[in-house]
Amino acid sequence: MQESHYQPDTPTRKVHPDAADISSPDSGSPGGQFGHYSLERKLGQGGMGVVYLARDTTLNRLVALKIMLLQDAESVERFLREARAAAKLKHPNIIQVYEIGTQGKHHYFTMDYIAGVGLDELVQDKNKQPKQMAEIVRDIALALDYAHSQGIIHRDIKPSNILIDSHNKPYLTDFGLAKEVAGLERSLTLTGTIIGTPDYMSPEQARGEKNKLDGRSDIFSLGATFYYSFTGYAPFKGNELYEVMNNVINKEPITPLKLVPNLHRDLETICLKCLEKEPDRRYQTAQGLADDLNSFLAGEAISARPAAFMTRVIKKVKKHKAVTVTIAGAMILVVATVLILTIFFTSSKQIRTRAEVILSRIRMGGVSADRKITIAREALKIDPAFAEAWEELGGAYYDKKEYLKAVECYSKAIELAPAQASAYYKRGINLERLKNEEALSDYQKVVELAPDSSIGYYCKGSIDFRKRNFESALRNYNKAIELNTDDPFVYNGRAMVYLHNGRTDLALADWNRAIELAPDSAVAYYSRGIFYGMRKEFNKAIADFSKVIELDLKNTSAYVGRGNAYREKKQYEQSFADYTKAIELASELNPSDISSIYVDRGNTFKMTGELIKALADYSKAIELDPKNPDAFHSRGDTYILAYGNYGQAITDLTRAIKLNPDDPSLYFCRGEAFRGKREIESAINDYTKAIELARDRASELDPRDAVEAYNRRAALYLHSAKPKPALADWAKAIKLKPDNEEAYSSRGDYYFLIKEFDNAIADFTKIVELKPKDASGYRRRADAHCYLKEFESAIKDFNSAIELNYKTATVYVDRGWAYYETGNSDQAMSDFTQAMELDPKNAVAYNNRGMVYFEKKEINLAIADFTKAIEIKSDYVYAYYQRGRSYNNKNQFTKAIDDFNMVLKIEPKAGEWIYVNRGWAYYKKNMLAEALADYNKAIEMNPKPAESYLSRGLVFSEKGELDKAMADYTQAISINPKYSEAYHSRADVHHLQRNYKQAIADGEMFIKLAPDDTRVKEMKRIIQFWKSELKIKGKESSPPPK
Fold it and tell me: Which residues contact 226 (CB under 8 A, 6 or more apart)?
């Protein structure tokens, strides 16, 4: 009888080969395991990753293993960029990278482990010698010259990135900010964002001029490191980060000889040449720097020369030259304006005393506030009971913004003339400036004294508006207009109420009426300009602000408003001109008002990427007004954006919260800082507070202001393994903002993670609807369809993603797999090959194409692809597994066993199919004991597959243990009644046991189930033999008659 050629195979295919049933290793702590690395101890940890001393168990060597902690796309790209940049370089003074890969969800790379200290630690050694430092810097310069020749700029040279081993040999490390000059790698920072470490960066780095960076920037940083190595100080210091940046750009360092008097002058000359502000004045190559250091070490003349006398003079002139900066500012919204209405009460019949004659000089015009005070006091000396003189004195103090003194003067006027409505009105204005709610009482007194006057109701409406009592404000403004239909100030006030209530057409009509009544009044033009800015009608806003400036050349707010409109139109030159003028005019304002303008200008600097200038303005604002919450808020936010300085940000934002505890945006921003510091509970608490405040102020805030807080809190709940509140937060965020793409995205990713693929598809579908031109929604929905084995739907989504230019290697790999699952092997092959062209190091593409070749019976090509996958990823267990199967197919069983052994070495907890396939190889080599052990292990791990019992039955048959073989074949058939191979094998055993009747039954079932099998003809012949044997047997031993 012909021997069975059955070879075990997996019962189902996985969507992603890496997701095969092979468990993940334990990782994350010393003494643990990370892939084929044994973790010895933690060496250090930063914001992006953690570094362990680890042992490569495959090669039995110590390595430094860097594991990425963050998982966002930008951090992954930066992490991989560091690894790729370093791996590209092979130099004796550059840390060598051994391997780049992923383990589970973590990206990692390994590099040479250097047992030594950083240069920053070595500098603290009192026995260090300048010559030793020169040798170290020379070697690093040679390493840099090599890196530059390979198109790599380091961009973060500093003492801690230079390691010194026990033989005083230096190594350059940490290429996390490295830039490939000629490559196509996308920059990971925004325009103008600072790249590098402040104390050691070059002026062009400090200015954010990324496009101007070349190898000479590294030479500057190495010069700053050299300076530190023998002085113990960084060349540029400051109390704040922006001060350091400013000093790097504008100031010369203290000459080293002033700090180290016995230093050789040549070393100072070399160092200062590296630190030239202009790149053209530095060493043009790192090799040039190394040559001069070699000359110094050999006692020979160096090429660099100290700065000439005139050069030093020019530098001193530059050092003290005033710096003209571009002025920027941000839009401010003036909610309500209360104007001073002068009420003159004169009587032609009444002639005042000499005091009134003196007081009349004030009305001549062109009189300053100080002169008014002198005149009023002169009049009061003559007549201390002159109420009008007290009012004029109060007005002069109002002009000087000394509101408390003004209130005292008006109170004296009221004491002398209690029926004078104007004094109450003016005192109310000053009380309002002091944020004293007693102003309302004075305005009500005006209404009592002048019931037919609109001004009292106007003032009450203004106070109501300030107290956010909008219904009452509207009633008072309406009453004022009823009493006087021609008062432009009332229309302006009512317009502000309409604007707040969302009745924008009525608001615009009131402003137009105010301008019609008082075409020379700046107030209505200004308010309407703000309104047009809110509606993004910037040309109209500019026209209104220009009219305000025409009417009032010193109107600071108008310049700021117009500058803001120009900024929104990206007309930055005009914007800067207006903000510059606003700053000039601000000298006449109170410190708190000037502080606000610095905040506005700082915000615009931040928007344009000039973060150092932004920080300087915020700090100036705080200096002018230490109680300005906006200044602390903006500076804290900039510390996060510019430097990831979460500690300083938290300090500033905490101060802002103390000053303004009811602002939800402050808690949200501080939550962002806590999140950056990975202080999860504190971040959640702040997001919760932001949500509560936004909810409490729902009447005055857009309810969607809480959306971002819900989104962030949901992410942190999920991070803290609290999925239920995370899901609740996403639901609330979506309810508040139905087009909340971020919430759908995060929730969809979570559903995908927990394998609720239908829910994931629903959320990804919403993303596709909201952003039909965004490929990521199609991409992720395709993955979910794959896991549900909806491969046709997946292919459609992959096609959409690719049409939207999402043409990455992984997309082609995944679409290829979907084609493979639908039986379209040719298209699958095409996609896997396209993936290889896009990424020649994509191991999965080679592995998957190998599987296609395997199915096509092109075994040699399959083995070649599996081997290439293993070359790219030495611990790729699935490729070893597939190659082992291929070797089994070619009857190269020793090689197959080696591959299956490697799978178990890399992943001891591999699934049962490893044992099934290795058992087959042992069986074919007649190593029956080993084969039996493997099949026993496979069945112990998973007793459900019929193939395992069939395989073990073959071993028992070979060993002559026919009863055990019979039992296994029968078990295989009970699991899978249509398993033709099991019937074939059981028929063999029946034949050996001369159970011909049962053999005939099994043989006929085999023919029925596998009519196209090449062994059918032979089986039919044998069945005829069995039937003839039954006839002979029946004649020889007929049963006795009943």
Answer: 133, 137, 270, 271, 274
